[in-house]
TrEMBL record:
It comes from the Bacteria. It holds the Pfam family PKD_4. It comes from Cochleicola gelatinilyticus. Residues 70-104, 147-187 form the PKD domain. This is PKD domain-containing protein. InterPro entries: Ig-like_fold, PKD/Chitinase_dom, PKD_dom, PKD_dom_sf.
Length: 334
């Protein structure tokens, strides 16, 4: 009996230790996630590249407010990047879903299309030959290839799609006049083809030019003239003056920024911008990289106390009317 009691007491202590260990692990995990966690309202990122082609360098830029940690996945079996602005190269053409996770919490996915790699032409490998600017129909055209290390040739003289000659020197007689394209492929290299234009002139006619026109005798009554009725209509001079374009007061980007801050502080109403938009305050705008309208933007920032990082105004020439604007902002902490 005493042995059984000792065993029960020993089992109870092991259970307690197990629960304590599980509690400590859970608490550590929650604390780690809490330390790393940062707020993110909306994930915004862009990409910059000279060309979106296979083998070209692409720079991805995160513009998320409050971002502290990043995890980029490029959908091409490459490793995950944890940089804010990673550089990446897609090796194959196609569509890739780029995924960005910010602060281990917010995710955005965007499909990017990568085109075929652009072929680079080596000028030193292009065939070399000369042709005259023009030739008369029926005259033989003689050409010779001057390409170094050439062993096979494919001449096409522009009247058919087939190969017209396969020797280093070739001769051809055109059957139809017009502008023709001569092409040459050497050593079977279809990537490097030289094309040149030649104008095939028609044969001049041997007929004598007409110097005199004989007029046949006119029948009786041919010379009777008929006088058409004519009306002398005088048009009155136009008195309509051209309408002058409507102009609105000019507002600088600095002053516009100040007033937008007043809107966010609820010190100014959006209707007070009406004259600068020529009466239409629902013009399209780009806010933090997203399309919206000026009216919706003002409603969104009202009472949020924002800080504007960038603002560009685009006006109509001659009237100063604001057509659209681009704004980047974030919520102010103070």
């Amino acid at each position: 009996m005493e042995k059984k009691a000792k065993m029960t007491q020993h089992i109870d202590k092991n259970v307690i230790y197990l629960f304590l260990a599980a509690f400590l692990i859970s608490a550590s995990t929650l604390a780690y996630r809490y330390i790393k966690m940062a707020p993110c309202d909306e994930v915004v990122f862009t990409s910059v590249a000279k060309e979106y082609r296979a083998g070209e360098l692409i720079k991805f830029i995160d513009k998320t407010e409050g971002a502290k940690f990043w995890e980029w996945k490029f959908d091409d079996s490459t490793r995950v990047s944890t940089e804010k602005e990673p550089l990446h190269i897609f090796k194959e053409p196609g569509e890739y879903t780029v995924t960005l996770m910010v602060n281990d919490l917010c995710i955005k996915k965007e499909v990017i299309t990568i085109k075929e790699k652009k072929e680079v032409i080596d000028p030193s490998k292009l065939p070399v030959f000369e042709v005259p600017n023009s030739i008369v129909l029926g005259e033989p055209l003689k050409v010779i290839d001057k390409t170094n290390n050439a062993s096979t040739w494919e001449w096409r003289f522009g009247e058919t799609v087939r190969v017209d000659a396969d020797t280093k020197q070739a001769e051809y007689i055109y059957k139809e006049p017009g502008l023709k394209t001569i092409s040459l492929v050497v050593n079977g290299d279809l990537k490097h083809i030289t094309r040149k234009k030649i104008n095939v002139l028609p044969i001049e006619s041997d007929e004598e030019p007409i110097t005199q026109i004989s007029i046949p005798d006119k029948p009786k009554g041919w010379s009777i003239k008929h006088s058409p009725l004519e009306k002398n209509i005088k048009e009155a001079p136009s008195t309509v003056e051209p309408t002058k374009p409507k102009t609105v007061p000019y507002i600088s980007e600095k002053e516009f920024t100040r007033r937008m801050i007043m809107v966010s502080d609820e010190e100014m109403d959006v209707k007070q911008f009406t004259e600068y938009f020529c009466g239409d305050i629902n013009k399209p705008v780009i806010s933090n990289g997203k399309n919206t309208t000026f009216l919706v933007l003002c409603e969104k920032i009202r009472g949020r106390k924002i800080k504007i990082k960038k603002l560009d105004l685009y006006r109509d020439k001659g009237s100063n009317c604001i057509k659209n604007l681009i704004i980047d902002y974030r919520k102010s902490l103070f």
